[in-house]
Amino acid sequence: MLDCSASMRHDGQLARAKGQLLALMQEAYQRRDHVALLCFAGDVVELRLPPRRASAWNDDWVAPIAAGGGTPLALGVQRAQQLLAKHETRQRWLWLLTDGRSNESPARPAAADVACVMDFERARTPLHRARQLAAQWDARYLSA
């Protein structure tokens, strides 16, 4: 899940998140994993990459992903739950790349076997919401 809200435009946060996304996709490709990508912003959750076997990735693939609008985190998590629930035969990982700038605090998707929250917050006064969400979800927390 990639947070594409307006707050991710600041200080190159979305660019850094795209770089991390490419690294995660490259690892998935090397392991022959299956992947999907949900981007969420405004009041929309977009399935940018439907579930499929990972393939080779490059910058051209992520360049068109833009940021703007609010952070519909709960809606994104709900959509992730739906996708993950369809693939019970595999170990299901959920990666959330976000700056945590949302007032929503949805429950961890029950279908996620493993959850990881990668925090891109770079505010002068950090809110630490991504860290709090990771703790609430009993998820791995990584600071980008």
Explain the overall architecture:
There is one protein chain. With 144 residues, the chain is an alpha/beta fold. The chain has four helices and six strands, in the order βαββααββαβ. Helix content is 31%, strand content 25%. Strand 2 and strand 3 form a beta hairpin. The longest helix is centred in the first third of the chain and has 19 residues, at 13-31.
* Integer-rounded radius of gyration: 14 Å
Shape: globular
Strand percent estimate: 25-35%
Summarize the helix and strand pattern as letters. EHEEHHEEHE
Number of strands: 6
User: Unreliable stretches, pLDDT < 50, 5 or more residues?
Assistant: none
Helix/sheet category: alpha/beta
Spatial separation of the terminal alpha carbons: 15 Å
Strand order of the largest sheet: 1-2-3
Keywords:
4 helices; 3-stranded parallel β-sheet; globular; 6 strands; 144 residues; alpha/beta; 3-stranded mixed β-sheet
List strands and helices in order, with pairings:
Layout: E1 2-3, H1 13-31, E2 34-41, E3 44-53, H2 59-62, H3 73-85, E4 93-98, E5 114-119, H4 129-137, E6 140-143
Parallel strand pairs: 1-2, 4-5, 5-6
Antiparallel strand pairs: 2-3
Summarize the structure.
The chain is of the alpha/beta class and 144 residues long.
